[in-house]
Amino acid sequence: TELERVANLSPDEARTQVLKQVEDEARMEAARLIRDIEDEAKREGERRARNTLLLATQRCAVEQATETTV
Predict the structure, then answer these.
(1) Distance (Å, whole) CA 52 – CA 49
(2) Alpha-carbon torsion 50, 54, 56, 60, what sign?
(3) Contacts of 10 (CB under 8 A, 6+ apart)
(4) Are the CB atoms for 4 and 14 separated by under 8 Å?
(5) C-alpha to C-alpha distance for 35 and 29, rounded to whole angstroms
(6) Which of 14, 22, 44, 59 could covalently link to 9 via disulfide, CB atoms 3.0 to 4.6 Å apart?
(7) How many angstroms separate the CA atoms of 35 and 41, rounded?
(8) How far is 30 from 50, CA to CA, in rounded Å?
(9) Rounded to an integer, what distance in angstroms lies between the CA atom of residue 67 and that of residue 61?
(10) DSSP structural state of residue 8
Protein backbone atom coordinates (compact mmCIF):
# COMPACT_ATOMS: atom_id res chain seq x y z
CA THR A 1 0.00 0.00 0.00
CA GLU A 2 0.95 3.66 -0.16
CA LEU A 3 1.77 3.79 3.57
CA GLU A 4 4.09 0.80 3.28
CA ARG A 5 5.87 2.29 0.28
CA VAL A 6 6.27 5.82 1.65
CA ALA A 7 7.23 4.77 5.16
CA ASN A 8 9.35 1.85 4.03
CA LEU A 9 7.37 -0.43 6.36
CA SER A 10 6.44 -4.07 6.11
CA PRO A 11 2.73 -4.85 5.77
CA ASP A 12 2.56 -5.87 9.45
CA GLU A 13 4.34 -2.69 10.56
CA ALA A 14 2.05 -0.55 8.42
CA ARG A 15 -1.02 -2.31 9.83
CA THR A 16 0.26 -1.84 13.37
CA GLN A 17 0.83 1.87 12.74
CA VAL A 18 -2.66 2.34 11.32
CA LEU A 19 -4.29 0.42 14.18
CA LYS A 20 -2.33 2.47 16.73
CA GLN A 21 -3.47 5.71 15.11
CA VAL A 22 -7.10 4.55 15.05
CA GLU A 23 -6.84 3.49 18.70
CA ASP A 24 -5.35 6.86 19.71
CA GLU A 25 -8.10 8.73 17.87
CA ALA A 26 -10.77 6.54 19.48
CA ARG A 27 -9.32 7.19 22.94
CA MET A 28 -9.29 10.95 22.34
CA GLU A 29 -12.88 10.87 21.13
CA ALA A 30 -13.92 8.76 24.14
CA ALA A 31 -12.20 11.19 26.52
CA ARG A 32 -14.00 14.13 24.89
CA LEU A 33 -17.33 12.31 25.14
CA ILE A 34 -16.71 11.52 28.82
CA ARG A 35 -15.90 15.19 29.53
CA ASP A 36 -19.10 16.25 27.76
CA ILE A 37 -21.19 13.77 29.75
CA GLU A 38 -19.57 14.85 33.04
CA ASP A 39 -20.21 18.52 32.23
CA GLU A 40 -23.83 17.79 31.39
CA ALA A 41 -24.27 15.79 34.62
CA LYS A 42 -22.73 18.64 36.63
CA ARG A 43 -25.07 21.20 35.05
CA GLU A 44 -28.08 18.97 35.69
CA GLY A 45 -27.01 18.40 39.31
CA GLU A 46 -26.62 22.12 39.89
CA ARG A 47 -30.03 22.79 38.32
CA ARG A 48 -31.67 20.19 40.56
CA ALA A 49 -29.90 21.52 43.64
CA ARG A 50 -31.11 25.07 42.91
CA ASN A 51 -34.63 23.77 42.39
CA THR A 52 -34.53 21.85 45.68
CA LEU A 53 -33.29 24.93 47.56
CA LEU A 54 -35.99 27.05 45.95
CA LEU A 55 -38.73 24.61 46.95
CA ALA A 56 -37.41 24.35 50.51
CA THR A 57 -37.24 28.14 50.80
CA GLN A 58 -40.79 28.50 49.50
CA ARG A 59 -42.11 25.89 51.95
CA CYS A 60 -40.35 27.58 54.85
CA ALA A 61 -41.78 30.93 53.79
CA VAL A 62 -45.29 29.49 53.63
CA GLU A 63 -44.90 27.88 57.06
CA GLN A 64 -43.54 31.12 58.52
CA ALA A 65 -46.37 33.15 57.00
CA THR A 66 -48.95 30.69 58.31
CA GLU A 67 -47.50 30.73 61.83
CA THR A 68 -47.27 34.51 61.83
CA THR A 69 -50.85 35.07 60.76
CA VAL A 70 -52.37 32.46 63.10
Answers:
(1) 5
(2) positive
(3) 4
(4) yes
(5) 10
(6) 14
(7) 10
(8) 30
(9) 10
(10) T
